[in-house]
Amino acid sequence: MTSLIPAATLSDQFARFGLSLALRDIPHAVQTRAKHLILDAVGIAVASRGYAYADVSLAAFSELGSGSSPVIGYGRRLALRDAAVMNGVLIHGLDFDDTHSRGVIHSTTSALPCVLALADRDEKSGADLLSAYIVAMEVSTRVASAAKGGFHQAGFHPTGLVGAFGCAVAAARLLHLDELQVAHAQGIVLSMAAGSLEFLEDGAWTKRAHPGFAAASGITAATLARHGFTGPRSAYEGRFGLYASHLGKRLDEADQQLATEGLGSTWQIDEVAIKPLPACHFTHAVADAAIALHREHGFSADTLDSIKRVVAKVPRGTVEVVCEPLEPKRRPVTSYDAQFSVPYIVATALLKGRFTLDELEPAALADPAVLALAARVDYEIDPDTTFPRHYTGEVVVERSDGTRVAHREAINRGCADRPVSNDDIVTKFYANAQRTVSRSTAEQIAQAVLQLDERPAHALADTLAGSTESSRTSS
User: Fold this and answer.
1) What confidence tier does 5 reach under pLDDT thresholds 50, 70, 90?
2) Is the peptide bond before 70 cis (omega within 30 degrees of 0)?
3) How far apart are CA 127 and CA 21, in angstroms?
4) What region holds the MmgE/PrpD N-terminal domain (predicted)?
5) What are the pLDDT digits (tens) for 134-162?
6) What is the pLDDT of residues 219-269, one digit of tens each?
7) Cis check: omega of the bond before 388, within 30 degrees of 0
8) Angle at the Cα of 107 (from 93 to 467), degrees rounded to 5?
9) Could you tell me which residues are beta bridge partners of residue 379?
10) pLDDT tens, 290-317?
11) In Å, what is the CA distance from 265 to each residue of 21, 74, 261, 268?
12) Where do the CATH 3.30.1330.120 domains begin and end in the chain?
């Protein structure tokens, strides 16, 4: 009987890459950037402590069982997979984490919880952790990029859906699987990967859990494969594989060759955008455009009556996420609603000249001037966008006297073509971390992250957990 499985599936190629990559093969600049991406994520996780979603999640996982795996800022208190999910919640909870532009995916927020949990448990080196993190990043960003934004359009959140595959390969690497087992792990995780965008309808918390679920699924799939459990070999390109099952009518728009193009020679780490604002990346260009107009023209709550209408020009591929349905977007109820609302973000930035975590507090959400202006914000499709390479945006203010002023952001701040520097990431880390810890503690965390490849993985885990002494148990 002739096999219907391609001679070299995408799973096979990712397996070969994931097992053969050596840290010495990765350019030093890529390694350095990777450590700074981890630092960015850790700062956000530390800032998340004390938010309702963090406390609720920790209480739930604590009820399900205990363990000695590290939870960032909370000690060693959960079982391995629960710790991975919890760390994903902490990193992704504020929607301030990095984004791979072309893949439209937050990859660090699943990759780091996955490799941190396993590398700590199995007493790996920090270099092992860093290598596995880069593997997860390369796989998940590439798999997402091949869909050309189609996952979002079909109602799926790539961070949870696709992140599981990168985590499966990274976990398999740390567990020393062979190539066939790594391929099976990807097939297994195909039945576990998930992530619905339905949270957009009412600001539900489910998105916050997606990356942690991806991390735990990757660990589970790799462990099953290690013990002989088999999965379908054509996890991506198969008749019911990832692309066919999750893209539907948009399957023909995908380019699966992008998944492995330049694999091992070009680095998607370099394409990861850092968020300068705590909101969906799709909103950043219009937010910055509104901030620029505020600074140039002095718009404020006192000049509200001078503004007749505001038009935000956005890429067509972002409309369903941050512009529609329009009326609820104009009056966000929760912070998560606000982070995915072009009208609210543009109105806030135009009147206040900023958009920070403080603009997500209940008092800010109820600001009558902001809500009055948000009701006047409409959107149009940006005809000149380069999306998804860039998350473009333009804001046009129509004044009551008939004049118009506008500002355009053709390249969103923080993306690969307008990058945030490593020094800027360090500054962002301290601003976030110091919301909940002292400067000296933040400095210890930064040092542990930026020198992670020089120490055992458990040393980083201890520092992130806030432990003074290791309570690890050998496996």
Assistant:
1) low
2) no
3) 12
4) 13-249
5) 999 999 999 999 999 999 999 999 999 99
6) 999 999 999 999 999 999 999 999 999 999 999 999 999 999 999 999 999
7) yes
8) 60
9) 312
10) 999 999 999 999 999 999 999 999 999 9
11) 11, 38, 9, 10
12) 281-409
CATH 3.30.70.360 fits 10-276+434-465, yes or no: no
Residue 475, exposed/middle/buried by CB under 10 A (0-12, 13-18, 19+)? exposed
Beta bridge partners of 314: 381
Residues of the chain with CATH 1.10.4100.10: 10-276+434-465
Q: At what angle do helices 10-20 and 163-174 cross, to 10 degrees?
A: 40
Mean pLDDT of the 122-128 span: 98
Sequence letter at residue 381: I
Report the pLDDT value the prediction gives residue 6, as an integer from 0 to 100. 57
Q: Angle at which helices 206-226 and 52-64 pack, to 10 degrees?
A: 30
Whole-number Å distance between alpha carbons of 281 and 434: 23
- Quick one: 331 exposed, middle or buried, by C-beta within 10 A (0-12, 13-18, 19+)? middle
> Which residues touch 57 (CB under 8 Å, ≥6 apart)?
85, 86, 89, 208, 209
The answer to whether 143 and 259 are in contact (CB under 8 A) is yes
Burial bucket for residue 249 (CB in 10 Å: 0-12, 13-18, 19+): exposed
Q: How many CB atoms sit inside 10 A of residue 202's CB?
A: 11
Give the total residue count for the chain: 475
pLDDT at 345 over 80: yes
Residue 388's pLDDT is: 87
Selection from 143, 79, 74, 72 nearest residue 113 by Cα: 72
The Cα–Cα gap between 76 and 85 comes to: 14
What spatial distance separates the first Cα and last Cα of the chain, rounded to whole Å?
A: 43
